[in-house]
Amino acid sequence: MDEQVVSAVKTDKDKDLSSAELMYQEAKVMSAQGRSLEALEKFEKALEIFEAADGKDVEVANICEQIGDLRTMRGNFKGAVPAYQRALAICEKNNDPVSTVLLAEKIIDLYRQLGNLDRVLPYYFRALELVEKLGDIGKAGLYLTGIGDIYQRRNELDKALDAYKTAHGIYQGAAYRERAELLEKGIKIVEEAITAGDSNK
Length: 201
Prior knowledge:
This protein has helices at about 5-30, 35-50, 55-75, 75-95, 95-115, 115-135, 135-155, 155-175, 175-200. It has 9 helices and no strands. The protein is mainly alpha-helical and about 200 residues long. It starts with a helix and ends with a helix. The longest helix is centred in the first third of the chain and has 30 residues, at about 5-30. The protein has 2 domains: about 1-115, Serine Threonine Protein Phosphatase 5, Tetratricopeptide repeat, CATH 1.25.40.10; about 135-200. It is about 85% helix and about 0% strand. The model is unreliable at about 5-10 (pLDDT under 50). Helix 5 (about 95-115) packs antiparallel against helix 6 (about 115-135).
């Protein structure tokens, strides 16, 4: 290929990327000003450009998260989930556990609000795995409690009890007294439900 053609193509790509970066910054300002529809349009246009470019995964993930946040703010939970999932996949691919956990939390929250509890568990387990590696025992206890809640709602009481007891052990060992006391009450309720279920058999 002729050097001038290569140079012209590179210049066009650079202009497109500069334009996408400008759109991204404008969209962030619009979002902060409460102009969510305009911000969404700008984010989506910038996303198209970054997707077409090589090596722009970080930008794509950031824009997807922004789109998810705006859709959530506007009450479009079902539309927000795929945007967050895409950002999460990029963060996992790029070995960014902190961002992966934050995005998993957003997805967990949306699925819980949508009442889609079966889809919540894989995100809880992935986040739990990552926070254990990161050494964040407070979050590990929180996710185990959430897992226990899901199992309890699904009437899988033995699994719920196991998750609650594990979280309780974490909280007791880490001096989270209030959380430990709450879990003690929850454990008692689940144990009573299991006992009542056994006596009805």
